């Protein structure tokens, strides 16, 4: 049963599961829900880079079992995060993602739930936030990884409702709450660098290739010779060209990529600060903490406490 005016997810969302190498454990398509599409995946193997399929619906991914390292190619660079139980990722309607996945070292399968939520739920919820005479501001709802306990619990409740074959009115009410919750908590997960309308991509293909190389290999020991070889130019010409186009030296850009990765790791894992420093390519925990404090004005431990 569904109310006459309830939003309906796009038929394009039904094709999205075909882009994921997984076993579809459970899906709301089997019980006829139309207010949201809920696909429960189990993934047994790592995946080389693959492209998700776009849909007009908001895509919400919630990790429900295991752990994985996921990298997303956005704005000309790979960005990596660790997904554990309860970690959430977002892709705004109309966008696709280029992703690669790696399981945790125990090599156990991991499970995740993909929700495809009609945009109308967010439009309706936004109207309640809009003051009289003010214009509603649209934001692209994309984020690589963040934690939201309530959203995770809502997904588990939806899975249980699916098992019990609960009618669609339950899903409709859940999506009304979810859209309102996301708009209320937007400042918690929104990152301007995830908004691909403002990518500012470098138009020089040599430098774009180097940025992708940096973001894929940031944990390794990298030198100016490595970057110049990737660009196919001399290291002296490369260093000058890179700074002219980006405003940063190659090393400064590498540090920015490492710090951004460390922030996501601090926010989404319980790894010790020293381990985060090592996995992000810093020479030592002390060096990492010094750069982190200089960049953000607080220690990695303090950042983690605030972010949580």
Plain-language structure description:
The chain is 41% helix and 20% strand. The protein is α+β, with helices and mostly antiparallel strands and 308 residues long. The chain has two domains: 11-196, Jelly Rolls, CATH 2.60.120.810; 202-307, Orthogonal Bundle (Arc Repressor Mutant, subunit A), CATH 1.10.10.60. A hairpin with a 2-residue loop joins strand 5 (68-74) and strand 6.
Descriptors:
308 residues, alpha+beta, Jelly Rolls, Arc Repressor Mutant, subunit A, 2 domains, six-stranded antiparallel beta sheet, four-stranded antiparallel beta sheet, 10 strands, 20% strand
The overall number of domains is: 2
Strand fraction: 15-25%
Query: Which architecture of the largest domain would the CATH scheme give at its second level?
Result: Sandwich
Shape: elongated
User: By helix and strand content, what is the structural category?
Assistant: alpha+beta
Share of residues in helices = 40-55%
Order of helices and strands: EEEEEEEEEHEHHHHHHHHHH
Read across the widest sheet, the strand sequence of neighbours is 1-2-9-4-7-10
- The tally of strands reads 10
Summarize the structure.
This protein is of the alpha+beta class.
Helix-strand blueprint:
Elements: E1 23-27, E2 37-43, E3 47-51, E4 58-65, E5 68-74, E6 77-83, E7 87-91, E8 98-103, E9 110-117, H1 119-129, E10 143-147, H2 149-163, H3 168-184, H4 186-189, H5 205-217, H6 224-231, H7 235-246, H8 250-268, H9 273-279, H10 285-296, H11 300-307
Antiparallel strand pairs: 1-2, 2-9, 3-8, 4-7, 4-9, 5-6, 5-8, 7-10
Helix pairs in contact: 1-3, 2-3, 5-6, 6-7
